Amino acid sequence: MPDRTPAVPARIDPRGPRFAAGLTTLILLLVLVLATGSGVLLVAQAVVFALGAILGLRWSPYGWLYRRLVRPRLGPPRELEDERPPRFAQAVGLGFAVVGAAGYLSGATWLGIAASAAALAAAFLNAAFGYCLGCELYLLGVRGRARLSQG
User: Using one digit for the tens of pLDDT, what is the confidence trace for 92-107?
Assistant: First the structure.
């Protein structure tokens, strides 16, 4: 009989996802403003989102940069947080990046702009204010699932 003990979720330094959101904000600004709708740059950002969402934040290039370049210069975090909400946020970002890249690369520039702008707004909120929309969506889903299971 398989072991059904839930795995202990990975714990992360909460400053890492905020750092990643800052880099994501810069990339999405480049996509929207300087590169005038670069579908290729948005595909690269989608790969970053995919690595974080599927493999975990420690496998994301931005997570690696944070651990190697930023984290050693900071004191230890006051607390660690569950990795699942930020991973879910990466999956949401991946969805917007894929839709945006498809829009730019297919000639539906309006779709590329809309999806990139939505992802930019979410990344900026996290980078500037520490408010993660994708994390909040994850927690809303967990609460909803708990209510449904109660009955």
Answer: 999 999 999 999 999 9
d(CA 39, CA 126): 23
Question: Side chain identity at 150, as an amino acid letter?
Answer: Q
Q: How many CA atoms lie within 13 A of 55 on its CB side?
A: 12
Distances (CA, A) of 54 to 49, 60, 90, 105, 124: 8, 10, 9, 24, 22
Total residue count of the chain as it appears in this document? 151
How many CB atoms neighbour CB 70 within 10 A?
13
3-18 core/surface letters (b: 16 or more CB in 10 A; e: else): eeeeeeeeebbbbbbb
**Residue 148 DSSP SS3:** helix
What pTM did the predictor assign? 0.90
